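pasting for the record
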Amino acid sequence: MNIGFIGLGNMGSAIAGRLLDAGHRLSVWNRSPEPARKLAERGAHVVATADEAFRGDVVFSMLSDDPVTRAVLLDSGVLARTTPAATRIHVNLATISAALADELTERHRERGVGYVAAPVLGRPDVAAAGKLTVIVAGAAATVETVLPLLQGTVGQKVWRFGDRPSQANVVKLAVNFMLAAAIESMGEAAALAAGYDIEPRELFELIAQSLFPGPVYQGYGRLIADGRFEPAGFKARLGLKDVRLALAAAEAVNTPMPVGSLVRDSMLEALARDEGEKEFGVVLGRAAMRRAGK
């Protein structure tokens, strides 16, 4: 299949590599050239413009946030210049706002191009192994067309959440909020334990092997206990972005999220300390401990 790919950060590059390994013909574009060059060594075709990548049977995009997504796809005129003959379906893998997702859905409809939201759960190493969880929403027939790419190549499990693409984005924001809230509580619990001369690492080992098994309490607990800020698998500034988007989506439907507001303020405190490029989970967990003087 002829596939275009726009946005080659850590996650985008890992997913693009999976598509190459599956034998697809891949045309890639990125705002900075180095990630594209690395994929070219694996057989990808590097194109000079986003317009060129926005052609083929399917195009994937994985852009960092709303402003970048808007700039690359809308403000540049890329989407306005495409047609069904050039691009059949666009699969947006990024975590974006519900409002922008709705706008993109309408703009694709105007151009006659299929649009699927498919944000993912997992880190770059998980993406490289093809073990992401993929959250999908869009018109049923359009989703069915790209499902073979998403299931087994991009990720190991696909969860479908309705025919409006923004529904997938809201699910992703809800999940990221729950993750952030869990990490906030872990940091506060660690500070409590440390106040009584209990090692946070021992607390996290207890809960990860009893009440809360799994990657969140096990993985993030270890990172927080070790204070391992780098390398950042997920940067704190992006975590703050997702919490803000969740709060905006909640406000749009009159849903209070008091814990979300608390987490946002904790993240703002961390960014005020120039920790935006560091590991999200450690920054958030350590912020709670720092407030307690630990």
